[in-house]
Design goal:
6 strands, 311 residues, disordered N terminus
Length: 311
């Protein structure tokens, strides 16, 4: 059975609960044929990513990291839908890390997940206090916050038999990370759809890797997910990632399809056309060269190439 086809043809997910009515555009979309097309496109893209990178295997226990943002809600929604008709059996546990941010509505996610009927766990760890104590005011908090959050999630995964850790990063996140590493790190590096953690104990997957953020935003509005804003990241308008996001948004406005083209280039890397000797054996080219006598066609081509161009 074909994984991509079976997953992309999964039935629509039943409407979940909401904490409040979404925007008018979301309510209108939810009851239209456009929403059905969007929902099918999302399932198709996620199913294809899962198949292309062998993200989920029979018997896997997938931990969906749920932050309360539109991306992770959409990830959980689509995976639960795909689970129904997937050619492999896998379990899902939604996990949220309560970082003890002031004003965090701790009741929202449990209520939503209980009504949805999804198994879940809430991890409580006061990473907010650590980040605020260590990072000077005005400095980017994402690095330390991410490391603390990753440590807590990895620890939970190891203690609870989790075989795959699913994150909600989408196509635009991957492209933004590519430019962040190029501009500020001097490396040609992005976010892989699937990776082995540094300690080699965990497999991290990004099933939304093929999905553009605009489609997630439309889907989340239509589903009226009870979005929980992040009071750490959202309070830092001068972050490098925000600047890169704005750059890509302007590019996409001027040249529609550019972000998709950039993402396609990440998936089609020609190592011999770059300059990293660790990626390609430039030193060994001499040993691979073939020296053959030239025929008439070769001679004519060389003559044409060397002939001075007429102006």
């Amino acid at each position: 059975m074909n994984l991509e086809t079976s997953m992309s043809e999964a039935p629509a997910m039943a409407e979940g609960p909401t904490s409040s009515e979404g925007p008018d555009v979301g309510k209108a979309l939810k009851h239209s044929n456009n929403f059905k097309k969007l929902q099918a496109a999302l399932r198709g893209s996620v199913g294809k990513a899962i198949a292309d990178y062998a993200m989920i295997a029979d018997g896997d226990h997938v931990m969906v990291c749920l932050s309360g943002g539109k991306d992770s809600y959409t990830l959980l929604d689509v995976l639960v839908s795909l689970q129904r008709s997937a050619p492999v059996r896998f379990e899902i546990t939604a996990v949220n890390l309560d970082q003890k941010q002031p004003g965090f509505p701790a009741h929202v996610l449990p209520r939503y997940l209980e009504d949805l009927g999804v198994r879940y766990r809430i991890i409580e760890q006061n990473t907010y206090a650590v980040v605020k104590r260590v990072i000077p005011e005005g400095k980017t908090m994402c690095g330390l916050c991410s490391r603390l959050r990753r440590g807590a999630l990895y620890r939970f995964a190891e203690e609870n038999g989790i075989t795959k850790i699913a994150l909600g990063h989408h196509r635009d996140d991957i492209v933004e990370t590519l430019f962040l590493n190029m501009f500020f790190g001097g490396r040609l590096k992005a976010m892989p759809p699937k990776l082995l953690s540094e300690n080699r104990r965990h497999i991290v997957i990004r099933p939304l890797a093929y999905v553009p953020e605009r489609d997630i935003a439309r889907y989340a509005a239509a589903r009226a997910f009870p979005i929980i804003p992040c009071t750490l990241c959202g309070s830092q308008p001068n972050m490098q990632r925000v600047m890169v996001k704005n750059m890509l948004r302007e590019w996409e406005r001027q040249f529609p399809g550019r972000v998709e083209s950039i993402f396609s280039s990440i998936c089609n890397v020609a190592g011999s056309q770059l300059a990293d000797p660790k990626l390609f054996d430039f030193a060994g080219l001499e040993g691979r060269r073939e020296i053959l006598p030239m025929n008439e066609v070769d001679e004519d081509a060389l003559e044409a190439e060397l002939e001075p161009r007429r102006t």
